[in-house]
Each structure stands twice: as C-alpha cells, then as structure tokens.
Amino acid sequence: MTLPTERDSALSRKATLAKARLSRRPSRLGQQAGAAAKPDYPVAQDAGFPWLLKLTWQAAIAAHDLPVAVDVLLSMAGHVPAEIGLRALPVADECAMRVLFGKSWRNGGNDRRADGQTSCSAIGAKATFLGELGLNTSGRVVIRVPSKGPLAAEHDLVGGVLRVPWSADNLSDYQVELARVSARSRASVADGREWLAEAGPGGQADILENLKEAARRTAPFVLYSGDRQYTNFRDRNTLTGKTLWPGHPDCALSSLATVPAGLWSDSDVQMVVGLTLLVRSAGFARIEEANGTQITIDHVADLLERTRRLYNDVPGGEPVPPAACGRVAAVSDLAEALAKRRREITAPVQLYREIHGALMHKIERVSAPPSDQARRIEAEFCARAGERLPVSGRTLAELSASVESSPGWLAEPHGEFGTGLESLVFETVSAATTAFDADFAMSRGMRSLTALITALREQDWPKIATWDIPHFFCCVVPQPQASRHFGGSPAHLADTAWSISSRMQYNSWHFLVGNLPKAPQVAARDYFVPPTLPDIAYYSDQHHHGHIAAMVRFTVRSPQSVEVLGRPFNGFVDLRLLRCDGLPFGEQEMLAAHSVSGFIGKATSLAAALVADGAEIEITKFDSQWHWAKIAGQGGAPW
Amino acid sequence: MPWAKDAPSVASTGRAERIEQRSRNENWKKPPRRIDASECITCDTCLRNCPPEFGAIFDNGLDVVIIPELCSGCPVCVMVCPVDCIYVDEQWVPTEPQMWDHIDLTSQC
Q1: How far apart are CA A499 and CA B82, in angstroms?
Q2: Chain A within 8 Å of B31 (Cβ-Cβ)?
Q3: With an 8 Å Cβ cutoff, are B41 and A499 in contact?
Q4: What is this model's ipTM?
C-alpha cells in the first residue's frame, strides 16, 4: 500500500514513520524520500507550450508570404483550429484581419469582403502605413493597427514582428470596418450594462458568486475581453482558482463584488455577462468552450448559435429557435433553451468534447452512432476479457449483463488479486492498452468501498472530505514498447506510469466530494464538478508539467458514474487512453472506450452493492511497488 | 494532518513575523526544500500537509512552490509526496516581491 493517511494499526508509530520516510517513486523504492541529489529526468526549460510558440513563430517567418504566415500563426502551426485564433482578436485586430487578409469568425467564417478580396491587398502596391504582425506568449496573434505603437512595447512577443504594408485602400476600408464593429461593440456593452442594472445589486452579487464558484470548481480558463486576459491558469492569475482563493483582491470577480456596476470597465461587463450566458446554456463546463477566445456578447452569441445548430441536427424533440436578436436578454433566452434541449438529447445521442490542448479550447460534439470500427475494437476487447475473467459475451453490454447475473466473484480472490473487482480493473485496462493501440491505458477509483459505504451511512461528509489521495487508486498499464518514448528505460517507464497513477488519484480526490451535499467542510475544500462527458484531446502535452514529462499528447478520457447506496457518484471511475505520439484517437475509438469504461462502472456499482450487503472489497494493488514489479521488475511486462 | 505533530516545534506566530520581515529564521539549521517542477504532478498533497505554523507551500499558476523563507526544512512534504520530487535547496534564492505581495494576504487571514 502507499502511505496511509490513517495510521496502520498493524505497525508501530516508529515503523509507520519509517515507512512514510521511504520514497514512493518506483525506481527509488527502499531509498529515503527527499534524499536524492537531483531530478532523474530533467526536462528542457522551454518544453511544451514555449516550444510550440517558438515552432509556430519560426514557421510563420519561414512562410513564403504573409497570408500563409497568418494561417500558420492562427493555427499555431497546425496544432489548433484557426477559428480559435480568429475569435481571440480584439475589435481593432479583428477588423484589420478582415480587411488585410479576408479572415473573420463572423457568419461562420464566411464574412468576406464584398469584392472577394482575400489577401493582403498592399502587397505589390505602395504602402501607406507599415503595420506589424506578431504572436504573444499566450498564443494570440497580435496586430499593430494605425492607432497603436510598436507591438513589442505592448505585448510579450514570442519573437519579433512581421511587417505588414497597408495601402491607402486598406486604411480606408479599415476605418469603415472599425467604425462599424466598434459601434456594435459599444451598443453591446451598453446593453450588457442595462441587463446587469435590471438584475439589481442583489442579482449582480448572485451572478458574481456563481461565476466565482464556476472558476473554482472547473478546469482553468484563459479568456479575453479586448486586450485584457482573464485567467486562473498560467501567467499572472486574474480569476479565482488554485492560485487565487475566493475573495483575493487580484481576482477580477472578487474585486467587482464591492464596486457599483456603473464603475465596472467595459471589459469586466463583457466578461461577467458573457460567462453568465455560457453557464446558463450548459453549466460551468461550457466556459471551457470559450477558452482562448474573446468573451464578448457577440462571441458568446455566436458560440451558442453554433451549439443550437448542433443540437437541432439531433432527430426528435422541439428544435430550438435562434435568438430573436443579438441583445443579452435574447441570447439568455437562447442559452436557457439550449440547456433544456441538451438534457433532452443526452439520452439518445452521445455528447463528447473535443479538446485542443494548446489553448485548452473545448468543442462540444455529437458523435455518430458506433460503426464497424467501434464494434471491432469492442469484439477484440471482449474476446480477451472473456479469456481472463469469469464473464462471457461478444459485446460489452453482454459482458456487463454477465457480471450482473453473477456478481459474487467481484468480492472474492481472483488470480493474483485479493478481489475480482481488482482483477477486472487490471484485465480491462491491460486489454484496452492492446485493443486501442495505446501507449498507456488506465483506470482510477476508490480503494475502500467499505469505508465509503460506512461513511455514507453515517452521513459523515467531513470524514470523506479529509480522505487524501492514498485513499484512491489508478491502475496504469503501458505497452512495453512505450519505453521507447522514455529513453528505452523500463525504470523511466515505471516511474512515468506511477506519476500518472498518482495524478489520477488526485483527480479522484478532486471529483469525489463534488458528489456530496455541500456541508461546510466540503464547500471549504478544493474540488471540481465531477465530469460526465467523454472527450478526445489533441496536443495535451503543452502546459501541465506532468503532461509534458509523461508525453500526454493524444488522449481519450471516459468518466463513468457509479451508484453507491442509491446515490450516483459522477466521475467515480474512468478509462483513459494515451498515445505519446503517432495518430490521435478518433470518435469511434472514443465510443468504444466509453463502452469499456461503462463496463468498469457497472462492475464497480455491483461491487458497491455487494459491500452494502456485507462483503468487504478493498483494492490493495496498484501502488508504486506494483507498478514497478509489473513494468520494470523481473518477469514484468508483457502482461 | 497526521504528520504535522512530527514536525519540529516552532511557534506558529513566527510565520507572520517571517512574512513581515521577508526573511528566514536564522535558527533553522536545515536548508529549505524545493519542488522540481518538471517532476511535480501538481497534486497539492504537499501544500495540504505543510504544517500551518510554516505555511510555506503555494500554488502559483502551473506550479506548486515552496517559499524558502517560510520553509524550515522539516520532512513532512517529502513524506507525503507520491513521486518524491522535493529536493533539498542549498542554493535557495530570495522570493520575488510579487510573490510576497500574494503571501502577505495569507498572514492577514
């Protein structure tokens, strides 16, 4: 077992302390923790996002013309959809981009100039104004327009600048465009102020409290309103999150709470109204769909309109009408209608999120039905599981039914494991590694269902809130060949697997109490709203140091709810797949993975029912020693 | 926090003084610790377990950091770290003013 958070009664205090002082890094087992002179696996200072920024800038300056360079910058050299970059531009930059390069996010990206001009019109013509194009260290394209000084004076630039010649016609067009969009923006801000005024001081306070809770209980945000960045992620934080606690004066939302709305800046008004509209449309998680973009009312209205079309494509039910106009009240009505429609379509179709890790931008998608590819993966998985577990079936639904018809073995020793549940988790994860051609597969959960059920019966929410990460497990199974990503070293592979496992224990810790009543001890604790949707991520190896070190590039994450004593626990278990390079996972693979995680979720619910009836189920494997023995020890992998 | 009582006994009022003076207790014999960012998984276990009389560990954007002036070098964070990414920091450098501005607020709570 890993370090217990409650003393092991079988050990003396001295022995317990001696055990706790030992390193849990697999390759350092038996050594004293904290005694190593230096890190084993140094990572370059610019690894991850800084490296991608440099790569993007180098590709832009190597481009043969400015329009190509613009495409490179907007898409971060092909690592994110260019539309995200377009939606990141403040008004002046947006107008310049449209006039100079014919690119705009408005009207589905079809908002072209009437004359069809789509390239930098000053190229080859006499330049009247010499502007600049750059990339800032947040990954946003920045443009020097006539009213601005050199970009280097106003932005943290990745490299230098590209010179952009403006013709007299460009300037004239820009003036017209800027006047049009600025007027629209001013009207939108005024409308937002009016909407907030109608809410009154009490309503405004509720809005701010709700948004602080959103920022605190979900994955980080990076949003723009004009040139102002709102974030609880990297760089200097300006929103509540792990760095700034609620009430911190640097948190924009907290600082507004005591200031009359009439004194709020235009940026703050747009941010508060925009975030509120997003939350109304699907809860806190919708905000992540605006990551890396402006949070103006126009931008939010466009996101919700795209969502409306997505939801209306699902057969059945009442289609959602478009917003009656672009005013906040109308967009709010649309947001609420979308929330209702979303609840209706969740059962007949599988929603999921596509994640572009470089900008943490998420896009909600409706998946196609399972096809031959998903069925083929499922069949391969079922064949292997049937060989190793006392279950039978050609589909995961049949496997689940097989466990449900005779679940007793889940609480009994099975193979090398103390319980069948433990064995099922391991065999499922190891089969998934092969079936999905993943470098790593993993599944996390709670070590002691017995302790959880006891605490639930006693409604001891404070006790559950104190359980730290050793109360959770994550079984991580790499392909033996995955060591090629880690210098060919099985020890490095084992250390990486354990790092991943530990982080997943933290994720379980982070989600569990989000399912509990909001007792004071729960509300005071750091936790996230538990996830319910699967996702597919691209280039997730950019920001989080652990993701960079473990090369978490392409992933599928599939969380599942588990029922314990009649109470649903969202995100209680999951299946995650990771490829360190090569091809990203596709939608059909995600669907198959979601079926596999559903199998684990079902088995865990059945195990919880056994425990509720008196059985004892403790997961005792999947600690650092186990990962070391399996991955790097004698007779370790292949599985 | 199960291991806090194993830490050296230090008057908790000392933390506020150290923050005010932005200096390390000269009587501390052990060097402070530091978290290696490239190995850290940002689980915050160290932060949650750092004895309150020291309160030396903070989230800072993507990183979890130990403030050397507030760290006595006690072993608690090392004992709870699941990945053993905390090292002795013999060559520690003074904390930047911007970080102190953030820390100042925690001594007023």
Answers
A1: 8
A2: no
A3: yes
A4: 0.92
Interatomic CA distance for residues A137 and A50, integer angstroms: 8
CB proximity B97 to A under 8 Å: no
Domain ranges of chain A: 49-127+129-166, 188-352, 372-631
Q: For residue A16, which residues of chain B lie inside 8 Å, CB to CB?
A: none
Residue A557 and residue A438 in contact, taking contact as beta carbons nearer than 8 Å? no
Rounded distance, CA A81 to CA A71, Å? 10
Residue A502 to residue B75, Cβ atoms within 8 A:
no
Q: Which three-class secondary structure state does DSSP give residue A472? A: strand
Q: What is the CATH number of domain A372-631?
A: 3.30.450.40
Looking at domain B28-107, does it have CATH number 3.30.70.20?
Answer: yes
- Residue A145 and residue A243: Cα distance in Å, rounded? 35
Whole-angstrom Cα distance, residue A221 to residue A363?
Answer: 14
Residue of B nearest to A3 (CA): B80
Q: Which whole-number Å values give the CA distances from A130 to A95, A161, A227, in the listed order?
A: 16, 12, 21
pTM attached to this predicted model: 0.94
Which chain A residue lies closest to B90 (C-alpha atoms)?
A37
Question: Are B24 and B32 in contact, with CB atoms under 8 Å apart?
Answer: yes
Closest chain A residue to B101, measured at CA: A250
Distances (CA, A) of A194 to A180, A273, A275, A297: 21, 11, 16, 13
Q: Report residue A295 as tokens.
A: 């949070």
Span A504-547, pLDDT tens digits = 999 999 999 999 999 999 999 999 999 999 999 999 999 999 99
Determine if residue A360 is left, alpha or beta; phi over 0 gives left, psi from -120 to 50 gives alpha, anything else beta. Answer: left
> Which chain A residues are Cβ-neighbours of B2 within 8 angstroms?
5-7
pLDDT at A471 over 50: yes
Going B6 to B9 to B11 to B15, the CA torsion angle's sign is negative
Residue A67, SS3? Answer: helix
